[in-house]
Amino acid sequence: MNYAYPPVVRIIFDAHLPQEATHTITGISRSELLVQLRALADETRLRILDLLLQEGELHAQEIVSRLELAKSSGSRHLSQLSATGYLTERQGSGKAKCYAINPERFRETMQFLQRYTHGA
Q1: How far is CA 98 from CA 55, 60, 63, 78, 89, in A?
Q2: 29-114 belongs to CATH 1.10.10.10
Q3: Residue-wise pLDDT tens for the chain (120 aa)?
Q4: DSSP code, position 22
Q5: What is the DSSP string of 91-119?
Q6: Are the CB atoms for 109 and 88 separated by under 8 Å?
Q7: How many Å apart are CA 115 and CA 103, to the nearest integer?
Q8: Burial of 67 (0-12, 13-18, 19+ CB in 10 A)
Q9: How far apart are CA 25 and CA 109, in angstroms?
Q10: pTM of the entire structure?
Q11: Are β-strands 28-29 and 24-25 bridged in parallel, bridged antiparallel, or unpaired?
Q12: Which residues contact 36 (CB under 8 A, 6 or more apart)?
Protein backbone atom coordinates (compact mmCIF):
# COMPACT_ATOMS: atom_id res chain seq x y z
CA MET A 1 0.00 0.00 0.00
CA ASN A 2 1.49 3.34 -1.00
CA TYR A 3 0.14 6.69 0.10
CA ALA A 4 0.90 9.95 -1.64
CA TYR A 5 1.56 12.84 0.73
CA PRO A 6 2.58 16.42 0.11
CA PRO A 7 6.06 17.49 1.23
CA VAL A 8 6.89 16.65 4.83
CA VAL A 9 5.93 19.28 7.40
CA ARG A 10 7.73 19.05 10.72
CA ILE A 11 6.26 20.87 13.67
CA ILE A 12 7.99 20.85 17.03
CA PHE A 13 6.09 21.94 20.12
CA ASP A 14 6.88 21.82 23.77
CA ALA A 15 3.77 23.58 24.97
CA HIS A 16 1.78 22.90 28.09
CA LEU A 17 -1.99 22.95 28.02
CA PRO A 18 -3.62 25.01 30.77
CA GLN A 19 -5.53 22.77 33.16
CA GLU A 20 -8.81 24.59 32.52
CA ALA A 21 -8.62 24.08 28.72
CA THR A 22 -11.16 21.60 27.39
CA HIS A 23 -11.70 22.89 23.84
CA THR A 24 -12.14 20.26 21.09
CA ILE A 25 -12.15 20.50 17.31
CA THR A 26 -12.62 17.64 14.84
CA GLY A 27 -12.89 15.16 17.68
CA ILE A 28 -9.42 15.94 19.05
CA SER A 29 -9.03 17.76 22.35
CA ARG A 30 -6.15 20.18 22.77
CA SER A 31 -4.49 17.85 25.26
CA GLU A 32 -4.74 14.95 22.78
CA LEU A 33 -3.25 17.17 20.08
CA LEU A 34 -0.29 17.99 22.32
CA VAL A 35 0.35 14.29 22.91
CA GLN A 36 0.13 13.64 19.18
CA LEU A 37 2.49 16.48 18.27
CA ARG A 38 4.99 15.32 20.87
CA ALA A 39 4.91 11.89 19.21
CA LEU A 40 5.96 13.58 15.97
CA ALA A 41 8.64 15.70 17.62
CA ASP A 42 11.32 12.99 17.56
CA GLU A 43 13.91 12.30 14.87
CA THR A 44 13.65 8.51 15.14
CA ARG A 45 9.87 8.52 14.90
CA LEU A 46 10.05 10.83 11.87
CA ARG A 47 12.54 8.40 10.27
CA ILE A 48 10.07 5.56 10.90
CA LEU A 49 7.28 7.57 9.27
CA ASP A 50 9.51 8.43 6.29
CA LEU A 51 10.40 4.75 5.82
CA LEU A 52 6.76 3.66 5.96
CA LEU A 53 5.79 6.47 3.60
CA GLN A 54 8.31 5.15 1.07
CA GLU A 55 7.72 1.43 1.58
CA GLY A 56 4.13 1.03 2.76
CA GLU A 57 3.40 -1.62 5.39
CA LEU A 58 6.43 -3.25 7.05
CA HIS A 59 7.05 -5.77 9.83
CA ALA A 60 8.41 -4.29 13.04
CA GLN A 61 11.66 -6.24 12.72
CA GLU A 62 12.21 -4.90 9.21
CA ILE A 63 11.74 -1.31 10.43
CA VAL A 64 14.15 -1.87 13.31
CA SER A 65 16.69 -3.52 11.02
CA ARG A 66 16.54 -0.99 8.20
CA LEU A 67 16.84 1.98 10.54
CA GLU A 68 19.54 0.21 12.60
CA LEU A 69 17.66 0.66 15.87
CA ALA A 70 17.98 -1.34 19.05
CA LYS A 71 14.96 -3.65 19.33
CA SER A 72 13.78 -2.03 22.57
CA SER A 73 14.12 1.47 21.12
CA GLY A 74 12.29 0.53 17.92
CA SER A 75 9.52 -1.12 19.89
CA ARG A 76 9.09 1.95 22.09
CA HIS A 77 8.92 4.34 19.13
CA LEU A 78 6.53 2.10 17.17
CA SER A 79 4.30 1.76 20.24
CA GLN A 80 4.13 5.53 20.70
CA LEU A 81 3.28 6.16 17.05
CA SER A 82 0.66 3.42 17.17
CA ALA A 83 -0.82 4.63 20.48
CA THR A 84 -1.24 8.16 19.09
CA GLY A 85 -2.91 6.78 15.97
CA TYR A 86 -0.26 7.75 13.41
CA LEU A 87 0.38 4.09 12.62
CA THR A 88 -2.00 1.21 12.15
CA GLU A 89 -0.88 -2.06 13.65
CA ARG A 90 -1.92 -5.57 12.69
CA GLN A 91 -0.77 -9.05 13.50
CA GLY A 92 1.25 -10.44 10.61
CA SER A 93 2.35 -14.01 10.12
CA GLY A 94 3.29 -15.62 13.41
CA LYS A 95 3.76 -13.08 16.19
CA ALA A 96 5.21 -10.38 13.94
CA LYS A 97 3.41 -7.04 14.01
CA CYS A 98 3.01 -5.05 10.81
CA TYR A 99 2.82 -1.26 10.75
CA ALA A 100 1.54 1.23 8.19
CA ILE A 101 0.83 4.96 8.16
CA ASN A 102 -2.70 5.96 9.17
CA PRO A 103 -3.49 8.86 6.81
CA GLU A 104 -6.75 9.64 8.66
CA ARG A 105 -4.87 10.61 11.85
CA PHE A 106 -2.66 13.00 9.86
CA ARG A 107 -5.77 14.54 8.26
CA GLU A 108 -7.37 15.03 11.70
CA THR A 109 -4.24 16.66 13.05
CA MET A 110 -3.93 18.96 10.04
CA GLN A 111 -7.62 19.93 10.29
CA PHE A 112 -7.09 20.93 13.89
CA LEU A 113 -3.97 22.94 13.05
CA GLN A 114 -5.61 24.67 10.09
CA ARG A 115 -7.92 26.53 12.40
CA TYR A 116 -4.87 28.60 13.38
CA THR A 117 -4.22 29.62 9.77
CA HIS A 118 -7.64 31.16 9.06
CA GLY A 119 -7.14 34.84 8.41
CA ALA A 120 -3.37 34.43 8.23
Answers
A1: 12, 6, 10, 10, 6
A2: yes
A3: 455 555 555 554 444 444 444 444 456 677 888 888 999 999 999 999 999 999 999 999 999 999 999 999 999 999 999 999 999 999 987 888 999 999 999 998 888 888 777 755
A4: -
A5: E-STT-EEEEE-HHHHHHHHHHHHTTTTT
A6: no
A7: 19
A8: middle
A9: 10
A10: 0.73
A11: antiparallel
A12: 28, 84, 85, 86, 105, 109
Q: Tell me phi and psi for residue 50, to 5 degrees.
A: -60, -45
Residue 87 parent element (H or E): strand 87-91
The amino acid present at 113, given as its one-letter code, is L
- The SS3 call for residue 17 is coil
Contact indicator for 62, 54 with CB cutoff of 8 Å: no
Q: Fill in the amino acid letter for 91.
A: Q
- Domain residue limits, the chain: 29-114
